[in-house]
Amino acid sequence: MDRHCPLPLENHDTVQLAHGAGGRLADELLGKLFMPLLHNRFLARRDDQALLPAFSGKLAFTTDSYVVTPLFFPGGDIGSLSVHGTVNDLAVGGAVPRYLSAGFVLEEGFPIAELERVVRSMAAAARECGVEVVTGDTKVVGRGQCDGMFITTSGIGELRDGVDLSCSNLRPGDRIIVSGTLGDHGIALLTARHGLSFTGSALRSDSAPLHRLVAAMLDRYRGVHAMRDATRGGLSAVLNELASASAVGIVLQEDTLPVDSAVRGAAELLGIDPLEVANEGKLVAVVPQGEAEGVLEAMRTCPDGTGRNAALVGEVVQEHPGMVVMETGFGSRRIVEMPLGEQLPRIC
Amino acid sequence: MDRHCPLPLENHDTVQLAHGAGGRLADELLGKLFMPLLHNRFLARRDDQALLPAFSGKLAFTTDSYVVTPLFFPGGDIGSLSVHGTVNDLAVGGAVPRYLSAGFVLEEGFPIAELERVVRSMAAAARECGVEVVTGDTKVVGRGQCDGMFITTSGIGELRDGVDLSCSNLRPGDRIIVSGTLGDHGIALLTARHGLSFTGSALRSDSAPLHRLVAAMLDRYRGVHAMRDATRGGLSAVLNELASASAVGIVLQEDTLPVDSAVRGAAELLGIDPLEVANEGKLVAVVPQGEAEGVLEAMRTCPDGTGRNAALVGEVVQEHPGMVVMETGFGSRRIVEMPLGEQLPRIC
């Protein structure tokens, strides 16, 4: 259970410039909020660096900054998102996620209660992922100099033996698998941000950790060629990057792409392509043809449910290297382009 | 030499929202700016995580967010600062700094030329420190949603065998050493920010990497009890944290504290205590009495000059645990308190 976090701190119920200043108030924020909520033996040392046990093999190292707005959205918040995103970047690299760092930039006047809510959510997400937030930093900027709160998490994971995942590994004949419905995060954020509601639907972010799904896949077949989580730029960006890095073509079958009907409806209404929208709990895997069905089965039966809607959606071809082509239900073909940029800023 | 970085990118000479959006413009920013300037085999993989070689021993892991203003200041800039700060946090933990990550939050409209200048400075600082920026992320927020640029760097270092540095290691009789003049960074920032100038003086930040100094110290005596870089909150904050964590007292001799005369003058005029001001290239070490002179000598003769003004400034006592006391030149004593918070916001 979480330890008690006594509020308000030092009679402040909002973040003060001094909370980021390395003095008594900063010390109090660390001691009364961050340490009790994220508590572990590394943070308890109160040094400026965590000393981690030796790893037996190679490491994976990743970082992401989170500037999502709103901070709290259907299906998640910036705290859980900042853990899931970094855990997923380690997982799809073939690593077992172990340790996270967290750097906070806070706006003067930000409510301490909201900060507590975010850190609590971060702590819960870290527990679920089997990782620890072992070191961190807090800076405070004046009013109007940032928008509430930004978080940057970095992560270290332990690379599995015998795994070689890279965006340059695609070979003609490989199958393309996606782990579930596409576009949920982006569309949920957009509707939440603009206060839209669609009758009968509950649009929620898919923010979720994928480390168990990846473990199930690699346990089934260690030789998976490539994996990426389909965040900013969505499926379109990931497939274009993979095709380009491996100098191969990709052909998608439109009718196999899993898109939730509420997401499809909202996306149509908003004029947004769900394939270009960020996901925060979905991955794309490229698997040799003969192993694709086995890996798909391992995904669909992964006990945490993150792969229950996994689908085989296309294949790698020798033709049109660097290009992604979609075969539509009507037998025609269209090019799936690399998105120019964000249809939705501050989605993660 | 740095590779050529063709500007403007895609006919944009300022940062667009799409540069942080995982699509074509983001790809271009990565491929034409970050990768050529920071180039290394890890970034070249273009995956979302760096796969690092195995380490033989324990690791140190640290993170810091940088929100300094102005971005360019006498003696440094946010790019070099973000490398030095993280390198120093690893070094004072007893580790050899190896790999960095960098997360950028940029404001829409930020000049690409300034971004290039910052990344170029970061690359130069990394080379000097023998570290590589192996993974990164860029987010862009709308105008007015951040103040130009924030950077969060995390770092991984390899812990030296037989070193045990911790803020709870202080023992009565230990000597307190500082590596050079105090308050330079904070006072230089403040005067730069307000356009003040003091005749005949050249106030410059002391931003510098301390990894070679720490190596020289630990080569001379591996049993150093504690080390901290004296950043936010200055010497006062560090010594109060050390005294409190080790439940010992500390006595300083005022006339031994190295403060540059121009810094002292500016600080007096501004009503600021140089002991409470951030340094970005100074450390505090706590060393057993019998080894203090040897370590001091190793610091003063460190070839990069970062320890040339090192001084023995006080000692650890059994009395007044948790309290730092200064003996002044007039034979009186005063308490050196933990600063409440920042006299100078956004100093690093």
Automatic annotation (TrEMBL), chains A, B:
This is Hydrogenase expression/formation protein HypE. GO terms for biological process: protein maturation. Residues 171-320 form the PurM-like C-terminal domain. The lineage of its organism: Bacteria, Pseudomonadati, Chlorobiota, Chlorobiia, Chlorobiales. Belongs to the HypE family. The gene is hypE. Pfam families: AIRS (PF00586), AIRS_C (PF02769). NCBIfam families: hypE (TIGR02124). It comes from Prosthecochloris vibrioformis (Chlorobium vibrioforme). Residues 47-158 form the PurM-like N-terminal domain. InterPro entries: HypE, PurM-like_C_dom, PurM-like_C_sf, PurM-like_N, PurM-like_N_sf.
